[in-house]
Amino acid sequence: MRKYILLITLSICATVMLMAQVDRSKLPEPGPARQVQIGDYESFKLKNGLRVFVVENKKLPRVAFNLVLDRDPILEGDKAGYISMVGQMMRRGTTNRTKEHLDEEIDFIGATLFASSSSIYGASLSKHKETLLELMTDVLFNPTFPEEELEKIRTETISGIKASKDNPDAISNILTSALVYGVDHPYGEPSTEETIENIEIQDIVNYYNTYMKPNIGYLAIVGDITPKEAKKLVNKYFKKWKSGTVPSHEYKVPKAPEAPIVALVDRSSSVQSVIDITYPVELPIGHPDVISSRVMNQILGSGGSARLFMNLREDKGYTYGAYSSLSSDRVIGKFSAGASVRNEVTDSATVELLKELNRMKTEKVTKEERDLAVNFISGSFARSLENPQTVANFAINIERYGLPKDYYANYVKNIQAVDYNEIQKMAQKYITPENAYITVVGKGSEIAEKLKVFGELKYFTMYGEEYEPVPADIPEGLTVWKILDNYFEALGGKEAVKGIKTMKTTMKAEVMGQNLEMNATKAAPDKSYMEVSMGGMVATKVVTNGEKAMMEQQGRRPPLDEKTTKETILESSMFPELQYKEAGVKGKITGIEEVLGSEAYVVEFTYDTGGKVTNFYDKDSWLKVRMLKSAEGPQGTANQTTDYLDYKNVDGIKFPYLVSQDMGMFKLEAKVESIELNVDVDQSIFEIK
Question: What is the C-alpha to C-alpha distance for residues 227 and 233, in angstroms, rounded to an integer?
């Protein structure tokens, strides 16, 4: 035993001595640039123009085939969205296999097979490589484009578009693309319900016949396969693919605004603002500035140690994260810098964003910043080489974009050669907030006036259509309390609703493969018991008895302050709106918004505790279709959106039978199994000890 104690003691002493010799307050000096060894590959070209790159790698008994078609961007016009459907339609059936048969054969060999309008990818165990190629080329050469599959894709796509209208980040992305590139540019035109409805099978077929040609194709083959085997297989499966003339397209180069334009998408229900400072950038792939500008952007806003993140999150606490990007593109690139922040700090956050952009231009970066950025990029590049697919992608890029043959072999050396002067030069050249769109998706009534100091304020729809704001078309004499009266009338009558003394509800949902069951029992006016079970085990329990509230998660009961207790009791009651007047809740109609395909009145309610909830009542049915609840956290405001759908009649009263909650990473859709009204209830379940 003494021997082991001695060894441990010596180890500790050695560690202490080593730490004493290292000054951890300083970043280590970067070593000399490593000689990067890009893996070997072989290439050849078929007579039909298909270029093939083979990377042999015997580490795993797997092989992957990745076909990329190099075409110009295409303007889709009043059928925007059809190109994104091409690959999906190719996978929905061939002349030899239905979609179901295709899926079965892919699953049988444990393969993956994906297709898009400009690529097709397949991977499997190397012993199944020929079967995989047969399936892959069947999809490539023999698609049938079934009409019924187009309708399924159309429905899915329109559903996604409708969902994006309620997502501030999605709205921001659509808006910035429309403004930066223009709606008459392939990078800026939006897909809408109308353009998706316009798409016909012939549009898909025409694209396929025009652009699926080998002479614009690059095929990368990576894995457990020799160049000789690869050449034999490629000739067997791709030799008969006929080449053809593929049209080219040119577009007017988008220009940045001559002065800052503040572009606001006004959402009266927003409790956060999504800010983006953006403009087009001419930075072609392979341009000498690409490498040094990447180092510059790494320091500015690419990661948790960058200036934007350290300022807006770590110092000011305005946001969960602030980032920037500078993209190179053969047609046109883009610069973007932004964050999502609370309404009340929208102007302050914009000030800090602009401050950091201008500081990149006027101040040289520190040695620590430069070294950290260079080392991070170099390390990321080196790690990417562990994937043999990277080598194939490099080979394709060199051929596709006309890069120097040693472009990637010298990449790390060129990154580490970027100095302070070059970084500042790149900032002065590519950081131009004085010629930018400052897009904001947020609540105009709270932020519009404060944004005017940053440039000319203009209002836009999410699709980049400018408009003059007018007051919401609220009928004369309509008040918050009249909306609630209409809501109760729509449910079945206020007196009938008040007549409900007890209610039992059972709901079921599935989350990430796990089945949930939710059982709630309520007694008028303000008693409630709810438990959420997973796999038969109670995971969460919430109880209120009119005076106290209790939340239990996995056996733990966090203490609740007075504010949380009061709000929990109110929100857990059968119909919270019945209690609003007595509880001193104040309401305000803030506008009209589209929700679930229909217009709804937006009503913001403020509790006497200061908490807020925003409800949406359908203009036609008066039923509540959405609730937005926000809660303050250490990094800002967290939002939870709950949608109420599929109302059904129970004993003369309407209840939503589908409740959908946006949980951020996923949606929780709970379906009602049963609702029982005015049944006997064991009052002891409401006791809180």
Answer: 10
As given in the structure block, the two tokens for residue 98 are: 């239905």
Q: Are 374 and 297 in contact (CB under 8 A)?
A: no
The H or E element spanning position 277 is strand 272-281
Only one residue has tokens 């309620």, namely 166
Alpha helices in 337-491 (DSSP H): 346-362, 367-384, 388-401, 411-416, 420-430, 444-451, 480-491
- Residue 269's nearest CA partner among 483, 478, 441 is 441
- C-alpha span between 185 and 199 (Å, rounded): 19
Per-residue pLDDT of 375-385, as tens digits, reads 999 999 999 98
Phi, psi of 210 (to 5 degrees): -90, -40
Nearest of 334, 337, 358 to residue 283 by alpha carbon: 334
Tens-place pLDDT, residues 320-341: 999 999 999 999 999 999 999 9
Residue 101's CB: how many other CB atoms inside 10 A?
12
CA 6 distance to own-chain centroid = 55
Tokens matching residue 370? 């430069």
Q: Is 95 exposed, middle or buried (0-12, 13-18, 19+ CB in 10 A)?
A: exposed
- For residue range 296-306, list pLDDT tens digits in order: 999 999 999 99
Do 592 and 601 meet the contact criterion of CB atoms below 8 Å apart? Answer: yes
Pick from 255, 306, 276, 297: nearest CA to 454? 276
Per-state percent for the chain, helix, strand, coil, to nearest 5? 40, 30, 35
* DSSP for residue 678: S
Distance, CA of 323 to chain centre: 14
Element (H, E) at 526: none
Strand partners, 645: 658
Q: How many angstroms separate the first and last alpha carbons of the chain? A: 52
Report pTM.
Answer: 0.82
DSSP codes of every residue in 301-343: HSSTTSHHHIIIIIIT---S-EEEEEE--SS-EEEEEEEEEEG
Residue owning tokens 């709950």: 642
